[in-house]
Amino acid sequence: MDPRVKSAKRLLSLGVRAVLGVLLLLLGIAGFFAFAAGFADYPVVAPTPTAKPWIRGAYHVHTTRSDGHGTPAKVAAAAKAAGLDFVVLTDHNDFKPPIATWMDGVLLIPGVELSTSAGHLAAFGMQRPLQDMKPWGPPEQSVAAVEAAGGTAVLAHPVQTKNPWKDEATAHQVPGFELYSADTFFRQALHSPLSRLLPALGASLVNPVHGVMLLVAPEPEPTARFLELARERPRLALCAHDAHGLPAYETVFSALDLEFPPELLPGPLSRDAREAEAQVTQALASTQALCVFRALGAPDGFALEGYDAKSREAPVGAVLTVRLPEHDPGTLEVRVWGEGRLSPDGQHVELTGPGAVQVEVWAHAPGRFFGHEWRPWLVPSPVRVVPRPPGI
Length: 392
Known about the structure:
- There is one protein chain.
- The protein is of the alpha+beta class.
- The chain has a domain of 246 residues: Metal-dependent hydrolases (TIM Barrel, Alpha-Beta Barrel), CATH 3.20.20.140.
- The chain contains ten helices and 19 strands.
- Helix 1 packs across helix 6, helix 2 crosses helix 9 and helix 6 packs antiparallel against helix 7.
- It is globular.
- This is PHP domain-containing protein.
- GO terms for molecular function: 5'-3' DNA exonuclease activity; 5'-3' RNA exonuclease activity.
């Protein structure tokens, strides 16, 4: 045999063995994380049996009307299994979505994710059809169209590396901002395949919700950008599922949702789909909705107090109070970004200067191995901090 052919075969054999060795190693590591996932204990905060129920739902969900893997009926079934009351569907450039409807006990609300030359813009609550829209048009055209239709516009995954929002002028106009995004968590994990992606994939083999929660990690850049925009006027912070059916809709819905406290929207929703749509979209746009990483527990008993609820503003020097649900010591902590300082008791926030303050509750959640890691649990919209009135 020609020595060169023999050498080439040897190299090929070594290459195949190396690839198989790496795959076996990765499977072994994934198996370890799968084993550890069997011991992950949820929820971190036990439910309160006597608490009034909160209206719960999913926002930013794709179906087979665009690039989602499930029909609206499949999405509704998944939402029902996860205990949700509503789903806001936001298929790409779906300029004529179907009207709101009850399906399998879940309210399906029409929305849209618009592709513009500056990035993606999600929108919901339109009272009239969007006019003169074309995909990948100028961002100001989409923002104006949503406003003219009576809807609420939201910057979709605005700092994501794949599709960030690139137009500064319209960024200051749009009232909503996706502060946390399940799809962004996944894309960020792709940049850390060994420390984030592989543990999540391994855990998903045994505990899919734990697998999704392992993707959740602090993202300082969205928070910093959001607080910069929130200095000008009150802003709406939303957590987006950006669900396409992979991971499964039910898994993502069980890990994360948007909830309305009973004093904002007492249940049950109207059985008239159009009336129920108005109830949900008005509450969603009110800045009083709460993002909840639901796998960690229900928000029963949570409240953020000390600001004007109508304007979502408070003056410099005011003190916000964080009411925490009943919990075991060491399982929860309040975290503060922006113009606020957390008091030693861990439940009061002094407003230190004009701008905006973001207050979140984090939970000591099951980690990648057998320990625990801090993860966001309850995420309200920010409070705008205004100068103290003269003479005070």
